[in-house]
Amino acid sequence: MIKHIVLWKLKQTADGSTAVENAQIMKERLEALNGRIPGMKKLEVGIDFSRTQASFDVALYSEFESRKALDDYQVHPEHMAVRKFIGGVIEGRHIADYEI
């Protein structure tokens, strides 16, 4: 099984919305992918509440049945549409992929 974790830092304002509003939009759009991507077992999104200097604004945790399933997710048209929105509202991200 593959675990895919992403942390995003959002721009204060982007796409006509605040970082708080964009975090909620990201959460809704990403969670809408559940059950729609072959090989994706689980996807959850959390919005940070601690708001510290070291915090990221949005976290994604997902599980895939294989590396191929993760690769296929990356180019899936529904994921690409969400990525386009995310790319316009973030200022940074960190990613970790690992296999168990």
What does this structure look like?
The structure is a single chain. It is built from three helices and six strands, in the order βββαββααβ. With 100 residues, the chain is α+β, with helices and mostly antiparallel strands. It has a single domain (2-99), classed as Alpha-Beta Plaits. The strands form two sheets. A four-stranded antiparallel sheet has the order 4-5-1-6. Strands 2-3 form a two-stranded antiparallel ribbon. β2 (13-14) and β3 (17-18) form a beta hairpin. α1 (19-31) packs antiparallel against α3 (77-89).
In short:
The chain is of the alpha+beta class and 100 residues long. The protein has one domain: 2-Layer Sandwich (Alpha-Beta Plaits), CATH 3.30.70.100.
Q: Might you state the CATH topology name? A: Alpha-Beta Plaits
Structural class: alpha+beta
Counted beta strands:
6
User: What is the helix tally?
Assistant: 3
Mean pLDDT: 97
Q: Domains counted in the coordinates: how many? A: 1
Q: Evaluate the radius of gyration.
A: 13 Å
- Main sheet summary: 4 strands, antiparallel
Note the topology.
Blueprint lengths: L1 E9 L2 E2 L2 E2 H13 L8 E8 L10 E7 L2 H9 L1 H13 E10 L1
Antiparallel strand pairs: 1-5, 1-6, 2-3, 4-5
List the main descriptive attributes of the protein structure presented here:
single chain; 100 residues; alpha+beta; Alpha-Beta Plaits; 4-stranded antiparallel sheet; two-stranded antiparallel ribbon; 3 helices; 35% helix; 38% strand
